[in-house]
Amino acid sequence: MKSAQYSLVAERLRKGILAGRYAPGTSLPTERSLCTRFRVSRITIRQALTLLEDELLIHRRQGSGTYVRQNPARRIPLMIDYTGSVRDHAPTLSREVLGSRAIPVPGWVAEELGVSPGASILHAERIDRLGPAAVAWDEVYIRRDFAGALTREVLARLDFVEAWCDAQRFRLASCRQRVDAVRAARVDAARLDLPIGSPMLKTIEIYDAARGKPAGLFVSHYHPAYISITSRFDYGSTEEHA
């Protein structure tokens, strides 16, 4: 994935904050100064600062400036578009496929995907890391009629959803997501380096192809120290135009 310019600016500022070059509670340089430093437009700077604000590294005060939070601890704000979230907030994140094989579909997954209980389905397990830290792992369940051309290399792609559609030559129509707060089971604790029973985040995403036909289901488990579930709704401009 190629990072956008604002993401590259955010990455440099992020490194500075986490390395202590911008002390907690202090202000960042002005937008104009940052434009000069990075040789980019003010729009790009504002987009970069929005990313850092979503990560809870900075906060902006109207008419005063932009300040480093008192306890800046980076968290990746995860939206339903995982690829976009990673591209903007964690461009160095890596993915490993732990295993992939055909299995008899579990009963609850069969119900969600509209297949017969016990039917063969592609199952894969993957883990995502930011440096040495494991930040997420997931289980992938894909119907056989949407899995024929999937290789281990495709499963390892961070832009997997797009690569999946390209490999299988189909288009997605929608995605439904459920978010739960759960306690870490033994497998979560082992993979995410968490104490058993500690709070963590879990999502279930069901991807539908044309005419609402379910194609795949993803169960994702997130380390709460590195991932937050975030939503943003823009109401648009309320300014009146002559």
Shape: elongated
How many domains make up the coordinates?
Answer: 2
- β-strand number: 10
Give, in order, the helices and strands: HHHEEEHEHEEHHEHEEE
CA distance, first residue to last residue: 41 Å
> Approximately what portion of the residues adopt beta-strand conformation?
25-35%
Strand order in space, largest sheet: 4-5-6-9-8-7
Structure notes:
The N and C termini lie far apart (41 Å). The chain has 2 domains: 5-68, Winged helix-like DNA-binding domain superfamily/Winged helix DNA-binding domain (Arc Repressor Mutant, subunit A, Orthogonal Bundle), CATH 1.10.10.10; 76-229, Chorismate lyase-like (Chorismate lyase, 3-Layer(aba) Sandwich). A hairpin with a 3-residue loop joins strand 1 (58-61) and strand 2 (65-68). The model is unreliable at 238-242 (pLDDT under 50). The chain contains 8 helices and 10 strands. Helix 1 (5-18) packs across helix 3 (42-54) and helix 2 (31-38) crosses helix 3 (42-54). It is elongated, with a radius of gyration of 20 Å. Helices cover 29% and strands 33% of the residues. It has a 6-stranded antiparallel β-sheet with strand order 4-5-6-9-8-7, covered by helices on one side. With 242 residues, it is an alpha+beta fold. The chain has helices at residues 5-18, 31-38, 42-54, 82-89, 107-113, 152-155, 160-168, 186-192; strands spanning 58-61, 65-68, 76-78, 94-104, 120-130, 133-143, 172-183, 199-209, 214-222, 227-229.
Furnish the topology, listing elements before pairings.
Elements: H1 5-18, H2 31-38, H3 42-54, E1 58-61, E2 65-68, E3 76-78, H4 82-89, E4 94-104, H5 107-113, E5 120-130, E6 133-143, H6 152-155, H7 160-168, E7 172-183, H8 186-192, E8 199-209, E9 214-222, E10 227-229
Parallel strand pairs: 3-10
Antiparallel strand pairs: 1-2, 4-5, 5-6, 6-9, 7-8, 8-9
